[in-house]
Amino acid sequence: MDLRLNMSKLDSLTSWHSNWSELRVAIFGLGVSGFSVADTLAELGCRVLVVADKAEAEYLDLLEVLGVEVRIGNPFDEDKDSLLEFSPDLVVTSPGFRPDSDQILWASQNQLPVWTDIDLAWRLRDKIGKPADWICVTGTNGKTTTVQLTNQILEKAGLRSVACGNIGTPILDCIRDEIGFDVLVVELSSFQLHYLGGIKPFAAALLNLDLDHLDWHGSFDAYRNAKGKVYSNVEAACVFNATDEETLRLVEEADVQEGARAVGFGIGFPGPSNLGYVEDVLVDNAFSPMRKSKVIEALASLEDISKIGVTTKHLLQNIAAAAALARSYGVSAKAVAEGVSTFRLDGHRIEMVLELDGVSWVDDSKATNPHAAEASLNSFESVVWIVGGLLKGVDISALVASVAPKIKAAVVIGIDRSAVLEALSTNAPSVPVIEIGDGEDVMARAVAAASGVASTGDTVLLAPASASMDQFKDYADRGNKFVAAVLKLNGVIDG
To answer: Are 77 and 17 in the same domain?
Structure first.
């Protein structure tokens, strides 16, 4: 295969209205995004071959109708010959495939460009009239909340907006919407950013940066560099965390469009070109028309914010970031206030489950890494901590050391229990530890153990600092099992 011929062919495909019919595309993975890629490329007239470990029967039936060739469940070695015979010009991969996976190594060895659905969507964004502007969000934690709130504020401003990308509706479905959108608020994972080519967002935010997904990226530097790509080619505003110096450094390193501004957010008094908090009010010192006269503009009160859920430092930062992104697009302070006051968090994000007999039970199953767990733990004074799962190559020793004074007891679950137990023993030796072994009803046993040590004034907190796929379907399943066990144990629901 000749990489120069492939790139020449792809360079001409910059629009929905380009001639895609001669393109041959191999798709790796057939989840929600993989299906949307196959469906879109079939509509464009491309020749498509899908290779995947597994797929929903509904997807297979639909692709058969569309005439898309699919190979499911084979070891990749068995698919290589058919892929070579197919002779693709391009690979579009699920972002879950690691750079060192057999599939991506094969693409590299055969000099094939590798895209994700994000790259494809950028080229196809002009299907319906004027292309929507993109506002992109990434970070170790808080992406989904920030994306959803930014979208809600934009909608309150009367704009047709949608949250997409790594959450919600597949981005290609948004591109193909019959009416079209003014703005796409795009959540980007580090996996998507690793593969991402050249897009030009209107604005972008990197919320925070900490250890995560080291098993996938191979090193923190690789993870950091992937996250930093979110700022590339930004048109108007690079939004960074004023309390996280690494996010500012990545703005400074980024190659942006002329005129793009660096805009900080935080929880303290906002300096020039920042958003932050003055007493109990979120204020704008970046986009307010009055800022040159040193008058800052109020956007939302803590009373508005308290309606969202448990008011944590992490939540306040996410709200400030969302407000910064929305304000960069020119929305009013009134729209920000309306968006904040009507917003509600998704489940399993520092969600109060029950308060009974002086004990609070809180579900933060979405805290799948140490950074998120630390933010959660620091929101409470005395914690019985349910921790553990799949650590993804991350050492949680620093987390344990930083939160040790808050931990009354730890209940350890998950496949990587030995690493968690060692971190607790070394960094919090005075904390009582209960280990929950493998087997059925892991969460019910963990909740019962936590109940045995919790007393008035304590918070029993599920903030695992780990992924969930070792013992649960996903973080939502883990959280649901926690909620059910808490309500059953406390007699709120019948067994």
So the answer is: yes
pLDDT in tens, 343-364: 988 788 888 899 999 999 999 9
Q: Which residues of the chain have pLDDT under 50?
A: 1, 3-5
Q: Tell me whether residue 494 is in a domain.
A: no
Residue 345 CB neighbour total at 10 angstroms: 18
| Residue that the structure tokens 């068995």 belong to | 78
* Average model confidence (pLDDT) across the chain: 92
Of 115, 134, 160, which residue constitutes the final position of a domain? 115
Residue 211's SS3 state is coil
User: How much is the CA Rg of the chain, to the nearest whole Å?
Assistant: 24
Flag whether 471 is in a domain.
yes
Q: Exposed, middle or buried, 249 (CB in 10 Å: 0-12/13-18/19+)? A: middle
DSSP class of residue 265 equals E
Greatest extent of the chain over all pairs of C-alpha atoms, in Å: 70
86 and 149 in a single domain? The answer is no
Tell me if 420 sits within 8 A of 411, measured CB to CB. Answer: no
The sign of the torsion formed by the CA atoms of 41, 45, 51, 54 equals: positive
Query: Which of 149, 231, 134 has its CA nearest to residue 185?
Result: 134
Does residue 493 form part of some domain? no
- Under a CB-based contact definition with an 8 Å cutoff, are residues 462 and 383 in contact? no
Strand runs (DSSP E) across 63-110, as ranges? 69-72, 90-93
What is the residue range of 240's domain?
125-341
Contacts of 484 (CB under 8 A, 6+ apart): 493
Dihedral, CA of residue 125, residue 127, residue 130 and residue 131, to nearest 10: -10
pLDDT in tens, 100-155: 999 999 999 999 999 999 999 999 999 998 999 999 999 988 999 999 999 999 99
Are residues 16 and 131 in contact, defined by beta-carbon separation less than 8 angstroms? no
Q: What is the SS3 assignment for 127?
A: coil
CB atoms within 10 A of CB 96: 14
Q: Give residue 123's identity as a one-letter amino acid code.
A: R
Dist CA 181 CA 297 (whole Å): 29
State how beta strands 90-93 and 24-28 pair: parallel
Q: Is the distance from CB of 262 to CB of 224 less than 8 angstroms?
A: no
How many alpha carbons fall within 13 Å on the CB side of residue 422?
A: 7
For residue 346, tell me if it sits in a domain: no
Which of 341, 365, 399 finishes a domain? Answer: 341
Contact 367, 373 (CB under 8 A): yes
E strand or H helix at 334: helix 333-341
Q: What is the pTM of this model?
A: 0.82
Q: Which of 241, 233, 186 is nearest to 209 (CA)?
A: 241
